[in-house]
Task: structure prediction
Amino acid sequence: MTTAPVERRRQLTKECRENFHPANIPAELKTHRRWVVWGWGKPKGNGKLHKPPYYPTTGKPRASADDPSDADNLGTFDEAIAAFNSNKDYAGIGIAISSSLGLVALDFDNVVESGDIAGDVSQLVDLTYAEFSPSQKGIRAFYKGEAEHLQGKPLEIFTKKGYVTVTGHVLKNTFGDDDFDGRLPTLESELRHRLERMAGSRGDAKATDDDDFLANTDNNSPETPEEIDRLKSALKAIPADCAYEEWVKILFAIKTTGWDCARDIAEEWSKTEPDQFNEDDFKSAWRSGKDTPGGVTVAYVFGRAQENGWENPRKRHTDIDALVAAMTPQLIGEYGSKPPYRWLIKRLLPRLGISMIYGDSTAGKTFLAIDMAMAIARGVPMWCGSKVAQGKVVFIAAEDASGVALRYHAYLKNAGIRESELDGQFTIICQAPNLLDDNYVLALIKGIGHADLIIMDTLASVMAGGNENTGESMGKVIDSAKRISMETGSVVLLVHHSGKNQAAGARGWSGMRAGVDAEFCITQDKDGKTRVIEATKIKNGVQGKKFAFMLQQVDLGRDEDGEPESSCVVQFLDSIPAAVREARVPKGRYEIPMHKIINEHQPLTHDNFIQLGVNALEMVDGKRDRRRDNVCKAIQDLDNKNFIEKGTDGLYRLPKTYYPKQAIHDGDEPFDEPTVNEGDEL
Result:
């Protein structure tokens, strides 16, 4: 068979044309004169059909990108649309990639199943324009900037050659929303490296042999008899006749140990299914770095084994006598006589548990974390109007150690103190642990010993291979952080990013907020100068307090090349400027009408709330009725943001603390005096 059956091609073409929405394509992409049209062609060896491109003005098949005439024959966006409209055999349009474009095109293959997008993919494209592929099983996304041109699984990165189809069939919750101005964001270095690892590379390094691969691994588990036995024990719980992709993933997970015996362990495990084992396949897979799954470590093996019922022998248990004592019932009066709730910063930052600071990438999260940490390390009397207890601080600079060092020295210079005056109360770890790996957690506990405050900057950098959007990954992160807190006697402060819609809270899994004891949100005004930190959750503390600050530049002299060097420090303001205060109201496209409904008809049952919402929205002609889906999501978002609440009677209402028209007075709003309860201790 040399061509696809006619009926199949016709059906695929019809579906592609129905899902083509050119109006949604970003204006920035449309400006490039690099457009082609395409149709369904011959099948590949894997059964999928080729999508050959054609020049829009001539209708001829596209020549090689190296052909001198290629650039002249590529068309404008309007020419491609005209060609598409004039010939029903064309299934869509696409853009030819070139290094001169400064464009990074991401092609995720087979990541959509039954309309659900893989969580890690959704997170990776959340901040830019993203769309469904022609098959509706893949995702395309676009950034400005630079990256390696890589072809891996499930991700291909196009930056130098080839072409990618463009459908305009945008994803929900991406820049396809009404607020998108047509401009693409620049690909940040942290995300770039994550994508390159996922596509089969670590930046400029090519993992093509053992030495190169091991030079780029983050895992350094000790090669001891105990660790070797533990890995072999886990592998016994995983059948070696698994799918090829899974087999390769486990091989590379073993390889990341960096052990001399890693290959022997992998081969021994593979041979447990002799009918499936092939020596040549094993050698090829072991040496190749092309299909290395991004971020995979040996923790993947342990995770898969535990899913199959394996029990990790490394799990440490509290001394049984202490555990029995903790689980013994006692009278309420006896509990009341115990020491009171204790704080590092009174009524703001507890001494134990997990806390979190979140905000967007320019909010000043690290600056604020350092200011808070230094107040505790120095034992200053007050921080933001609350008493401070002196303690030992460990700052884990998992994302940008050199940047943290600059901020640290800027603080010292601005405060007029020397490092020796801190007496070892502020220390730093410049490596990224992995809270999903018990080895790292144990090493961190042993390495730190005792601390009062442990800051992890950022959350994304200490959960390699995990997914911020799933309860499985984030639940493990919370458990590990709690364990670190209890065994070091510290509060673990996570520095995290907000999502695209900051009103929805911190990025990722919605259950994260329930797992922390204190949460602080940083926002900034439109000009980016004034920031406001709000205590959005404080167990047994002062929730809702707000403080304003700005970043003040500090000159740090010159670097080794003689160029000026500087950083910033936090400068708190006496009050929140009126210009940056605004009424807290819903802003989502569907949240606004749903909030109006509850305001006018409360209390409402869940079903009545949904029905009123569906009735209030207009159905778009010619499109599938998604009103109920949009209404249900809006109700969930309103609930997550505390704009509504569901009572014990099952009815939805406005929360008692909500004020639809928050008063905004002239002048500045003074800070509240801190509340101090009897019995509270630092």
Remarks:
- Residues 201-220, 289-294, 335-339, 657-680 have pLDDT under 50 and may be disordered.
- Residues 210-307 form one domain.
- The first helix runs from residue 6 to 18.
- The longest strand covers residues 546-558.
